[in-house]
């Protein structure tokens, strides 16, 4: 058990949680109160507070200490007294863990390892925000997803600002952009529900972060907006030397004034995909290079991930002039779906899955464009009319190879390979 000073912010949140409904099982044994607080999916936070000296224990991973759960339990005892607790002569079976200082998910900031100290600080700042996000998400689901359709963007901005204050810019941007999805969008419910599910998954993953493999923990950090430092990636990331062909490139605005450019490269020998990300602000231009169809020989360092894609150039890249005459892609849509399922199982926050689809025929059905394989399986395309019709015209009713990004619902075509040439479809 430990004893530290509580922050004003933590005391404020504790006031909200100091209710019997949040602590389903409450006991008092001598001068110590114990409680268990459901944390979803069959898990509970186990909390104890000494009434004599104020020392506390909680099995949750949240920082700083004391956590809001211990403060809420103490406050509830102060307000409700012993009547709210079941008197017992024997403490719960997990009390020994409390006395022994059971380890928690966030690394100990007193550790000698400087990397562990940095991570502890970053995750510690995120902890309070994730706890608030869990309460916000639970309340939203109680009200019903449809109620958000009438909310103004400022309603989303409030929770987004809370995430930004907790040093999680990735989560803040995702929530803020949800406020810009028009209710008239045919995929409104799917997009809102999918994004909120990813946010809740991040909350639950953080609560179990002590059991996550290191690569998945890094994916969680990247999702909430804790970026790996470039020098760490270059020093520790997996290095791969190959001949890399730029299969596709696309630029888009993330939110004003931030713009992102994604350049996808394919390794000729290894078959691996590499993603180069560039960001600029306002009227700045992206640096030249990595045009689709260009070929480079060199080494990339991969960002740590359970499904590594993003890279940094590890040294100079040699520009070549030879374009591959064929691509090792998916023979049909079933094989593509199997590969995507495996990737998503490894990295549940995967934003975009790169894929070459071989021998597919683009077509239009109603107001939407699709591609079909030889087995008559289809994928819907995320394509504006100009792009869709260009693709249909390029194919001329014949199969072609198509490269793009799959977001779990739509395939965004970036390049097509037809009659020995690579054609760029998006800029």
Number of helices: 11
- Give the ordered list of helices and strands: HEEEEHEHHHHHHHEEEEEEHEEEHEEE
Rg, rounded, reads 26 Å
Report the biggest beta sheet as strand number plus sense, adding barrel if it closes.
Answer: 6 strands, antiparallel
End-to-end separation in angstroms reads 57 Å
* Percentage of residues assigned to helices: 25-40%
> Domains counted in the coordinates: how many?
4
Number of strands: 17
Q: Averaged pLDDT, please?
A: 85
Uncertain stretches of 5 or more adjacent residues? 1-5, 100-112
Overall outline: elongated
Judged by helices, strands and strand pairing, the structural class is alpha+beta
Strand content range: 25-35%
Question: How would you characterize the overall build of this protein?
Answer:
The structure is a single chain. The protein is built from 11 helices and 17 strands. It is an alpha+beta fold and 427 residues long. The protein has 4 domains: 8-100, no CATH class; 114-223, no CATH class; 230-320, OB fold (Dihydrolipoamide Acetyltransferase, E2P), CATH 2.40.50; 333-424, OB fold (Dihydrolipoamide Acetyltransferase, E2P) (Beta Barrel). The chain is elongated, with a radius of gyration of 26 Å. The protein starts with 7 loop residues before the first helix and ends with a strand. Helices cover 34% and strands 27% of the residues. The strands form 3 sheets. Strands 6, 7, 8, 9, 10 and 11 form a 6-stranded antiparallel beta sheet that branches. Strands 14-13-12-15-16-17 form a 6-stranded antiparallel beta sheet. Strands 4-3-2-1-5 form a 5-stranded mixed beta sheet.
């Amino acid at each position: 058990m430990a004893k530290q000073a509580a922050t004003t912010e933590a005391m404020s949140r504790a006031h909200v949680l100091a209710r019997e409904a949040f602590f389903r099982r409450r006991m008092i044994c001598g001068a110590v109160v114990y409680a268990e607080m459901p944390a979803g999916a069959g898990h509970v936070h186990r909390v104890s507070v000494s009434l004599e000296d104020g020392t506390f224990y909680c099995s949750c991973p949240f920082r700083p200490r004391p956590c809001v759960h211990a403060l809420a339990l103490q406050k509830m005892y102060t307000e409700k007294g012993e009547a709210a607790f079941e008197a017992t002569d024997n403490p719960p079976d997990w009390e020994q863990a409390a006395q022994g200082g059971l380890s928690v998910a966030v690394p100990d900031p007193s550790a000698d390892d400087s990397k562990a100290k940095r991570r502890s600080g970053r995750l510690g700042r995120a902890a309070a925000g994730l706890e608030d996000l869990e309460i916000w998400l639970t309340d939203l689901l109680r009200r019903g997803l449809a109620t958000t359709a009438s909310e103004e963007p400022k309603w989303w901005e409030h929770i987004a600002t809370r995430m930004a204050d907790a040093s999680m810019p990735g989560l803040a941007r995702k929530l803020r952009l949800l406020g810009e999805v028009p209710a008239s969008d045919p995929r409104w419910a799917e997009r809102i529900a999918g994004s909120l599910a990813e946010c809740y998954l991040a909350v639950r993953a953080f609560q179990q972060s002590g059991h996550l493999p290191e690569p998945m923990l890094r994916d969680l950090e990247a999702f909430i907006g804790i970026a790996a430092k470039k020098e760490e990636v270059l020093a520790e990331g997996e290095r791969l030397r190959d001949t890399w062909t730029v299969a596709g490139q696309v630029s888009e605005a993330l939110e004003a004034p931030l713009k992102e450019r994604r350049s996808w490269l394919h390794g000729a020998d290894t078959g691996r995909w590499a993603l180069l990300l560039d960001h600029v602000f306002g009227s700045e231009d992206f640096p030249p290079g990595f045009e689709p169809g260009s070929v480079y020989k060199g080494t990339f360092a991969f960002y740590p991930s359970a499904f590594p894609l993003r890279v940094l150039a590890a040294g100079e890249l040699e520009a070549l002039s030879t374009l591959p005459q064929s691509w090792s892609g998916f023979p049909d849509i079933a094989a593509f779906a199997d590969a995507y399922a495996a990737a998503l199982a490894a990295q549940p926050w995967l934003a975009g899955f790169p894929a070459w689809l071989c021998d597919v025929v683009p077509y239009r059905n109603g107001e939407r464009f699709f591609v079909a394989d030889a087995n008559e399986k289809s994928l819907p395309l995320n394509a504006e009319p100009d792009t869709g019709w260009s693709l249909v015209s390029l194919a001329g009713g014949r199969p072609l190879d198509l490269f793009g990004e799959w977001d779990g619902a739509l395939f965004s075509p970036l390049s097509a390979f037809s009659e020995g040439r690579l054609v760029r479809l998006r800029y």
